[in-house]
Hints:
two-stranded antiparallel sheet; globular; TIM Barrel; 11 helices
Amino acid sequence: MKVVDHIKNSDNTLFSLEIIPPKKGDSIKNLFDQIDPLMEFKPPFIDVTYHREEYVYKERENGLLEKRSIKKRPGTVGICAAIQNHYEIDAIPHIICGGFSKEETENALIDLNFLGIDNVLALRGDNIKSEPAFVPEPDGNAYASELVEQIASMNKGEYIDEELQNAIPTNFCIGVAGYPEKHFEAPNMNFDLKWLKKKVELGAEYIVTQMFFDNKAFFKFVEDCRKIGIDVPIIPGLKPVATKGHLTTLPKIFKIDLPDELEQEIGKCKDNAAVRELGIEWGIHQCRELIEAGIPVLHFYSMGKSDAIQRIAKEFF
């Protein structure tokens, strides 16, 4: 079922989560062990991230360098199929621009369609570590808006090979990312919202936000979206803080702010166990405000951890 239909068919706020594929060589049982404790909250869908391949250079015996592709977390498509089969709920793969030509993207979407996967989250993706900025593949999509356009075209039965006869349209529900505190590459929030609206106009049916810790930023983001005509569901992305290190790693990696009050309270914690309790308390407060505001879904970034999310969700589901 499509995400938008899950939302339409529910009178209450839904619970969902995002997972990271297991590391190369790990068992899928480890992943299921992380998901199992959260199934009591009946998530209608689970997002599965995609981690693009990176490259390393190995020196050969003759002194020449050999370029090797590595992928530390493979298997997004397979994991989505496994989740749908194991739990009988919808799995949402992240589809990214980076590392794929348009033809490779089309082939991946065809596979997903064959597997009965109804939803995709369309993202540009990050640049690889060896590149100072994002570089698209030759004949690849450079922006998430272009990726949305390609998926929407396939939903109309329009494929890259224009000579295909009677091509069957796909039927993907397309989600995109939104940034309550602005995408770090955007010059200002108005610019960022303009491109978010463009993605909706091209076919995006719902928005999932980057994580945030200040509900006021989210409410302002929703208000600004509505003012410019973005009327699709906006799902807040949430993550409980768990360590003192999150004070620096979360802003650095995800380009977000932590509220002064949260930063000061973390500073008072004597150890990470205390930070974890603070994160749960802060998360419960966030969720209570969001539910009272009528948001459609609470979407949690699990990062391979489920215990704190479980304690927060028990308060509401």
